[in-house]
Structure to design on (213 residues):
């Protein structure tokens, strides 16, 4: 049973990684609007966190972060902002693109687990989908301001506005579209996986204890 469960998790991890890579390197993953892009790559990260927990979410988030960084050098598409940030500092550009996605995936595992206890697994899937996009945007923009806030490029984008106002205005419609799509699709996929019994609806430790009794 243990070996079978581990094998299933590895298969799911491999499939979600493959899906994310396909999305990242085709028009399926990004819809470029101005300097930012509406990213649908947050969806596989949410599904990974739902099915595999914090570690699985972090791994798929890391893949997302790596593909995002590679766009700074024109691999799998080009990010206008990424190119500029890479020219300023390749190391900081990597941190800004990579770390927020790993942290996002990791925290989503706990968000799903916590929400499931408070509500039910189906609602938890939709909540996790929402936070996948929300946290991705929040961490990405926070890292942008924290790491590049003193550069002429970011100062020009901020144009003297308050940090919070700048972030809200800058991400705007992009963030709303990401949150809506991630909430609906992650929730629907998560629900389907639960019904297919690929996601446990009860705590595994409690289940094992019940079986022992």
């Amino acid at each position: 049973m243990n070996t079978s469960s581990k094998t299933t998790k590895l298969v799911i991890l491999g499939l979600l990684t493959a899906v994310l890579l396909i999305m990242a390197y085709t028009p399926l993953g990004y819809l470029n609007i101005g300097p930012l892009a509406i990213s649908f790559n947050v969806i596989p990260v949410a599904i990974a966190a739902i099915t595999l927990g914090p570690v699985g979410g972090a791994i798929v988030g890391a893949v997302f972060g790596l593909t995002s960084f590679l766009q700074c050098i024109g691999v799998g598409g080009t990010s206008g902002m990424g190119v500029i940030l890479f020219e300023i500092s390749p190391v900081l550009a990597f941190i800004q693109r990579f770390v927020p996605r790993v942290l996002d995936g990791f925290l989503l595992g706990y968000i799903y687990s916590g929400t499931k206890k408070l509500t039910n697994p189906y609602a938890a899937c939709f909540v996790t989908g929402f936070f996948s996009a929300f946290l991705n945007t929040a961490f990405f923009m926070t890292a942008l301001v924290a790491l590049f806030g003193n550069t002429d490029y970011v100062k020009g984008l901020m144009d003297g506005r308050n940090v919070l106002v700048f972030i809200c205005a800058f991400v705007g419609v992009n963030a709303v579209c990401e949150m809506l799509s991630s909430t609906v699709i992650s929730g629907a996929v998560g629900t389907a996986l639960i019904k297919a019994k690929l996601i446990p609806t009860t705590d595994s430790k409690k289940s094992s204890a019940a079986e022992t009794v």
